[in-house]
Fold this protein.
Amino acid sequence: MELPKTVVCKLKPTPEESEKLLATLKAFKDACNYISKVAFERKVFNPVALHHMVYRETRQMFKLPANLAIRARDRVAKAYKLRRDTLLQFKALSMDLDERIFRLIYKPERIFASISTLQKRVKPPLDIGEYQRRLLEDAKPTHAVLVYRNNKFFLHITVTKEIPEPKGNNPVGVDVGMKNLLAASNGFKVKGGETLRKRHHFRGLRSSLQAKGTASAKRSLKRLSRRERRWVNTILHQVSRAFVNSLKEGDIVVMEKLTGIRNNAKHRKSQNGDFHSWAFRRLQSFIEYKSLERGVPVVYVEPRNTSITCPRCGHVDKANRKSQSLFRCTKCGFQHNADYVASLNLSRLELAPPGRAPVNEPNAGMNGDFKMNHYDSPASPQASAVGS
Ligand SMILES: [Zn+2]
């Protein structure tokens, strides 16, 4: 099985190469805006139909090489798949590269990227570390995105990684949330408080910059949120890595499908709740990726009262959840950490998908004294496997 992976590589072009790359990026952006205008005005969004309207013009007006003209058209067509009610503008200096306009040249001392520009190809070396070098070594990348950011050029190179066929039969439920960033039924747990504290720190800085409202304050604001995202990303990578390291052979990761604000543009900006759902989804995707890399299958299940169901007697009651952190069953008195209970219920959902009898053997808990003698599976839980 193969898994795609993006390797971000800094480029080290000469001043002359930089000029060529920058001119090409600008032409690509202008071409996208031209194509976007044609598409929007004539209401033609199908890539093939659009091609006939803009291909020759794109090449003549912006002097783009053939495949860059095609990539520009594709980028525009793709963007209009999401929304067609407004004229889309392209501002970022980034362009898509395929195998005709980009390839890697492997030399013993360095790896070079050969990239088509408006004039000739440029061949700057990649400025990368050992880790990236190893990822690129036996890869045959066919796709990359060139990005200009903070006066530097980056190549986001897509490579495919060979991974073991996922297999396993021991479900490990993983609950992500505010109190515990991660709580798993194998006993692995990471508190979320630290993340939130740091977040508060950033929020304070941000509101004082917002109050200023000057151009330079706005720039700092942008930088800040990038820094914030990077910081959160690093935490999520560390947490997911540590969790995946805690898995044993034969484990299956079971997570809850997160619902809600996924594609809601209105909520996307600056809402604190939205920040958290973004972070939680990201954490899940990191866990998924790192698990699959190790051949551990990943399954998402529909949320089914996982936080209020008693894992011992099956009693479902909002009152079971005494507080954010405490679960106590109103029927049988079973008591435990609430996030841990949710993760246990998740692992059980995977054990009892529709048509399969519930399995009663206890899962490995974090407390030795915690035993489950009987478990009534919730009615017809929906389980769906997620492939690569
Ligand atoms: Zn109970």
Confidence is low (pLDDT under 50) at residues 261-270, 353-388.
